[in-house]
């Protein structure tokens, strides 16, 4: 071991003995010794995303002990530090504001402190992209430790997936089938243990993406938080974190365009969250990889759905893990040449080597490529006169919805509907049950003012539920469209991420209730049947005002943020790459 470590510039710098003393002294006050910090042992940060305010990741507070054991046993020194908390469900006005804030904070810590490598503890939706974005910007050796999903949850004898059960209960409640107490009980039942959401929501999706990219040990993503294997994975991840410092194996070696295209394909096969689109795009931006919005169509759309996991399928994370988890899904794709297995991964081996012998053990949960749950199950990319870019998650389009909207003979994949436009979530809740809107199955629900600028942050509100009266008639989903996002746990066939958003002058800003929308999935188009002259007239009128920023960060975020098609990254952050290649000044 001869390579001089980054941390030695702080602690073992003969040019600056006085400063080395200063840097060292306060680490001593809890018992670290100068010898440990000055003998060239890798100092490994543990970016702690868990706290009482981040319950999905809270188990990492305990797992960190096993990570530290692994780091110590491999000869490193662990130093744990907190990340900005991100709690998807509870953060108002939306946790989307936190991804870029946590990113900025982590970049500063990784860059400005004597760290040689980092273990990124991830779980709840945006913790994974925030951590990986920062690891790329700094580009020191980094490895992801997922926290794992909660155990499989049941309510009244049926599987009750996180989030998904809430959407289901909302419908049952609207239909008068359950009481408030039963609604609350189902929510409680859906959270049976430590861990993050147990559906293939955004959390499990993004941890699977980290694994698909090659940034975690094989099989890491889906191990339930409460399993003994999770603690063992924590230990092994800690050990490996030290080795990758010695090998100088950095994110920039692993996060290539081929790795991102692999992740897009894996997301389709998993039935992963639509939030993977902005998050993977943002991770690519900071990795210096060009990911085109059309890549989702070109590389992702034709991949079949293989994982039978809610919300696109039936099962939950625990059963998915026991069936083989992410490696088993990747094994299927690799076997038919739909995966590039040649790239390096954080294990030190190629992806193909990682996947050897990882065939699924439960074919009810993970289907063979030749016998999928659905063919061509990736995101459909849409464009038209309302937006340049939007996506639709095809794997959650139900047979009933297909039959009603997408199966007109001679016009397959094509339907028209009357737009009912809502200005934000408050407007939706206030008016959705207004009989005057005459909402029926020929309507398309549209929400605007829900994008990165408009909300601000971009909210998961596009998966709008039909009016109660329609639900009572058995119509549980209408086509929806919006410039916000949808929950990863929702099975709504929503057209989301319309970019540019209405608050940026996108087409939704001039759309009016009563306009006819034509959606043509076969052509990848969504248009309002409004004349060009009429559009110009409407554009000249004042747009809907966006709510004022309530905090300094909201204001800064709005000045800086790109559209969802571009990953909703911060403009000024994009120019910084591999900043650790130059040491900070003393
Ligand atoms: Fe945190 Fe789903 S709310 S993982
Ligand atoms: Mg969510």
TrEMBL record:
InterPro entries for this protein: Dihydro-acid_dehy_C, DiOHA_6PGluconate_deHydtase_CS, ILV_EDD_C, ILV_EDD_N, IlvD/EDD_N, Sugar_Degrad_Dehydratases
Pfam families hit by this protein: ILV_EDD_C (PF24877), ILVD_EDD_N (PF00920)
Annotated region described as Disordered, given as residue ranges: 481-500
Domain Dihydroxy-acid/6-phosphogluconate dehydratase C-terminal, residue spans: 364-568
Keywords: Iron, Iron-sulfur, Lyase, Metal-binding
Residue ranges constituting the Dihydroxy-acid/6-phosphogluconate dehydratase N-terminal domain according to the UniProt record: 41-354
The family this protein is said to belong to: Belongs to the IlvD/Edd family.
Protein name (database record): Dihydroxy-acid dehydratase
Species for this entry: Tabrizicola piscis
Lineage: Bacteria, Pseudomonadati, Pseudomonadota, Alphaproteobacteria, Rhodobacterales
């Amino acid at each position: 071991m001869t390579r001089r470590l980054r941390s030695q510039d702080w602690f073992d710098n003969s040019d600056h003995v006085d400063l080395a003393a200063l840097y060292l002294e306060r680490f001593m006050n809890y018992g670290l010794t100068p010898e440990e910090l000055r003998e060239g042992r890798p100092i490994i940060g543990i970016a702690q995303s868990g706290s009482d305010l981040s319950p999905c990741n809270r188990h990492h507070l305990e797992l960190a002990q096993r990570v530290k054991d692994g780091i110590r046993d491999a000869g490193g020194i662990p130093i744990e530090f907190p990340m900005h908390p991100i709690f998807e469900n509870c953060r108002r006005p939306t946790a989307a504001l936190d991804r870029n804030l946590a990113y900025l904070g982590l970049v500063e810590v990784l860059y400005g402190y004597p760290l040689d490598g980092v273990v990124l503890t991830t779980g709840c939706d945006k913790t994974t992209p925030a951590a990986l974005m920062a690891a790329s910007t700094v580009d020191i050796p980094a490895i992801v430790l997922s926290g794992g999903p909660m155990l499989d949850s049941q309510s009244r004898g049926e599987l009750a997936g996180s989030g998904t059960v809430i959407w289901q209960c909302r419908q049952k409640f609207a239909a008068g089938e359950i009481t408030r107490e039963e609604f609350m009980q189902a929510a409680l039942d859906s959270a049976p243990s430590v861990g993050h959401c147990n559906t293939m929501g955004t959390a499990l999706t993004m941890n699977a993406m980290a694994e698909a990219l090659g940034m975690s040990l094989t099989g890491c993503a889906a191990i339930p938080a409460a399993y003994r294997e999770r603690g063992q994975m924590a230990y092994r991840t800690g050990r490996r974190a030290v080795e990758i410092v010695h090998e100088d194996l950095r994110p920039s070696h692993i996060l290539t365009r081929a790795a991102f295209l692999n992740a897009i394909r894996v997301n389709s096969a998993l039935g992963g969250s639509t939030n993977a689109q902005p998050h993977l795009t943002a991770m690519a931006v900071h990795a210096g990889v060009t990911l085109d919005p059309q890549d989702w169509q070109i590389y992702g759309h034709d991949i079949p759905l293989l994982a039978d996991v809610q919300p696109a399928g039936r099962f939950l994370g625990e059963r998915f893990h026991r069936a083989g988890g992410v490696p088993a899904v990747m094994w299927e794709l690799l076997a038919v040449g739909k995966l590039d297995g040649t790239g390096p991964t954080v294990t030190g081996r190629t992806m193909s080597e990682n996947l050897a012998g990882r065939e699924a053990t439960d074919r009810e949960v993970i289907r063979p490529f030749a016998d999928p749950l659905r063919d061509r199950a990736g995101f459909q990319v849409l464009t038209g006169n309302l937006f340049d870019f939007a996506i639709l998650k095809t794997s959650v389009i139900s047979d009933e919805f297909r039959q009603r909207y997408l199966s007109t003979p001679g016009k397959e994949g094509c339907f028209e509907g009357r737009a009912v436009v809502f200005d934000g979530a408050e407007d939706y809740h206030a008016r959705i049950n207004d009989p005057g809107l005459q909402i029926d199955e020929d309507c398309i629900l549209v929400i605007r003012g829900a994008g990165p600028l408009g909300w601000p942050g971009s909210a998961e509100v596009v998966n709008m539920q039909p009016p109660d009266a329609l639900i009572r008639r058995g119509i549980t989903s209408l086509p929806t469209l919006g410039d916000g996002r949808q929950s990863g746990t929702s099975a709504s066939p929503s057209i989301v991420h319309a970019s540019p958003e209405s608050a940026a002058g996108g087409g939704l800003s001039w759309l009016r209730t009563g306009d006819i929308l034509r959606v043509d999935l076969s052509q990848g188009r969504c248009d309002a049947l409004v004349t060009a002259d009429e559009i110009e007239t409407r554009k000249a009128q004042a747009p809907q005002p966006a709510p004022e920023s309530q905090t300094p960060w909201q204001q800064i975020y709005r000045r800086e943020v790109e559209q969802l098609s571009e990953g909703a990254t911060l403009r000024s952050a994009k120019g910084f790459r591999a900043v650790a290649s130059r040491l900070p000044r003393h």
